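During the no-cost extension, the postdoctoral fellow (Dr. R.K.) reprocessed legacy sequence entries with the updated structure-token encoder. One reprocessed record is reproduced below for audit purposes.
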Amino acid sequence: MDAMPIEDMSKTYIEHSMVINNFVIKIGGQIKDSLCRVFGDGVQYQWKDNDDKIVVPDTSIICNMRDRKNVSFTGIPRFVMEVLSDATEEYDRNEKMNIYCKVGVSEYWIVDWRKKQVEIYMFDWKEDDTPYSYLYKTVTEKNKDDLQIVMFPNLKISFDELFDIE
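Re-encoded structure tokens follow.
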């Protein structure tokens, strides 16, 4: 069954939104009694290390809710997930990854709902304080039991729950 795009400016597929919603609903129910919150698309971040430009991740987990400036968070989320689309894939893989690395996000998932694949990137710092990213793990149907939020090991979402888009 081929997915049909909804008609709007971004040509976002419904499956794109479904993956985001699956994550927010599943993780949101587990995280609600903590100091952290999970947010879906629409939450803005604005960081000095990014020249105060607005960045809107598809999904983020932030634990410092007080770090806000007007309608934007200024704190650094510990986890960010971007769900790929044809229009944003290059931006998500390059510019956004570099921004998240530079500002100090710990974990970055790139989710491809078309391939049913999750690339888990971690960010770290070299001895000279230069940030860098590395591919920690790629999760597909073959190794789907390996799907785990590294920064939040107590939070669980299965591969099948994330990709429940049929």
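Strands lie at 37-39, 44-46, 54-55, 59-62, 68-69, 72-73, 79-83, 107-112, 117-125, 131-139. The domain at 21-162 is CATH 3.90.1570.10 (tt1808, chain A). The remaining legacy entries will be reprocessed before the final report is submitted.
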